[in-house]
Write a structure and sequence with these properties.
Blueprint (H helix, E strand, L loop, with lengths): L5 H11 L22 E6 L7 H7 L2 H4 L3 E6 L3 H10 L4 E5 H9 L4 E10 L3 E5 L13 E4 L4 H12 L8 E4 L2 H9 L5 E5 L2 H5 L6 E5 L8 E7 H6 L1 H20 L1 H12 L3 H5 L5 E3 L2 H8 L8 H14 L16 H4 L4
Family: Belongs to the bacterial solute-binding protein SsuA/TauA family.
Protein name: Periplasmic substrate-binding component of ABC-type sulfonate/nitrate/taurine transport system
InterPro entries: ABC_SsuA_sub-bd (IPR010067)
Amino acid sequence: MRSRPLTRLLTAVLCAVGMLGVAGLSGCTGSTASPASGKITLGFSAWPGWNVWQVAQEQGLFAQNGVEVELKWFDSYTDSLNALATGAIDANSQTLNDTLMSVSGGARQTVVLVNDNSTGNDKIISRDGIAGVADLKGKKVAVEQGTVDHYLLLLALAEAKLSEKDIELVPLVTDAAAAAFVAGRVDAVGAFAPFTTKALERPGSRAIATSAEFPGAIPDHLVVKSDLVKDNPQVVQGVVNTWFATLAWIKDNRDAAVGIMAKRNGVSVEDYKSYDSGTTIFTRQQNIDAFTPGTTPQHLNHQARLASDFLMSTGLAKNTPNLDGLFNDAFVKAVPE
């Protein structure tokens, strides 16, 4: 799910730190009849939970909620992360792991909304003859290092009483990993939708582990530059309000919405519908519950600690991410019920 070369991301973060704002907490207001001050650019890329933004744009819901937003699609998720880190965009759709990686490098970013949790659309897929994760011992497994699917692989291996040392890890970007698996060059692959659809084209292939087995481990967010929260909270509020307004529109116009989202991801409507159960879109209350500090998988602070440990233990992060001020629930709390 949502992959990128970590060295490129870290370089971009380190180069941009001086340009980024300082995190701050601000009071929030609801949407207004006139546009909030300033146009912002919001990035998103291939993941079922983020296609909601495409619906918002096509239905004019940003304007209805008083904000002027340029929606920017990235064919490469990597590029969207770099764009936020360098200040080329104001907000981005990205995973918790990737946000922590940016913060570890010195970026000032704030999570203001939980879009969804992956509940099955991240998968470890194996060839015929491999019945479970324990059978991966000594096998070639393709995955992009440092991504949430690498994280999922390690969680699944640990549950099977194995470690990364017990497999032959083949580091490839996610689309190339899926292609290598289909071509028979590796025995298994870690991938996210829609690349899981490609991987499962290999005859006899099956998912032997999915994110559904690790609740809360892979949350996806709207992340903004922290100076936007400080300097223009009304814009952030308008974008968050738009998200929930769009979810309401999708509920009332399901077929039209699925058509828009499937087209954006370049898959058939039937394939897109198959992703439904694997991505759990969060309600306002689920957002509030996730932002509330706690010690269970549903709590973001808990998952952030686990993900930070992963980044540090694998050597992907050189500095422990600072979690102070990373999560700001003021905007979801201010959304009209």
